[in-house]
Amino acid sequence: MSRILLDAGALIALDRNERVMWRRFAHARLGGTHVVTHGGIVGQVWRGARQARLAQALRSMLVVPLDEALGRLAGQLLAASRTRDVVDAALVVLSRAGDRIYTSDPDDLLSLAGAAPRDVEIVPV
Description:
Elements: E1 4-6, H1 8-15, H2 19-30, E2 35-38, H3 39-45, H4 52-59, E3 62-64, H5 68-81, H6 86-94, E4 100-103, H7 106-115, E5 121-124
Parallel strand pairs: 1-2, 1-4, 2-3, 4-5
Helix pairs in contact: 1-4, 5-6, 5-7, 6-7
């Protein structure tokens, strides 16, 4: 089963109540598609109690810890891709064939996915 993965830009779009991103999110949830992100991405966007929309979205998704194992795999992907964003690399490491990644940084994610290699769809938000 394919999943959708959300980067910081996608979470910010949900927090800003951007309708297109909420429609994508709702469609995935209603269709039984798992929505995934990781703790490093949450750290990039979470600023506190005034983020009710984001808190609501986070309750409906799997937030994977950015632990040592994921960090090591992300570091290996950074070496292979010659890029430097560990948070983006960790998201690509979490992806599986057929997944869709929503991102505000499609160029970097395409580079990482190509170096992985991962057969994923990179969707700009």
